[in-house]
Amino acid sequence: MTTANDRMGAMFVGEHLALDFLNSVAAPKGTLIDWLQTEADLLEWLERSGLCEADELVTIQKGARAGELAVALKEIHDFRDALRDFIQIAAGQEELPLTHPVIARINEILRGGHMTAQIETSQAEDGQTTALVLRKKFELGSPRDLLTRIAEASAKLICEADFTYVRNCEGPTCTLYFLDISKNHKRRWCSMKVCGNRAKAAAHRKAKAAS
Domains in the chain: how many in total? Predict the structure, then answer.
């Protein structure tokens, strides 16, 4: 496994937060990379993904008791493994494995969370009009609550996504998953910059050798 100094940056190519979380350990170029390898990695990834705000994570880090973040990281790793098993079974299927244990695990995590709701103003894309929206979020009281945000994203994927369009990249060594939201649903690669270009280069070499 690569170290923090020589690995590539985390890839957010899943088109869904839950799949980006699943992809936080992957081998896009054949070498396994874990972008949640350390506690610092976890906090950085949560901020980059948008699941947590920077000030929330600072508060969590400052208030954490000795060992709490390490325990939370272990639980998050375990949950990622369980979610991966579900996705591997469900990807590309019309019917989901409704009795898969990860569903009960998600419900257990969500029951232990503390959700708040608040009316806020939201600006439209045109930047001119505003509307009132109801914002709901799970509060972060301790490091273990970080998993609640991840479980919520996973629940939304399972309940809302069309899994016939959840796919594994076709790169021969790539383990990245994505939700194909392209217009014609013909997406094949995690990224054209990584596996797409490698496939094109391989096809070009093969054609040149055959000519």
Answer: 1
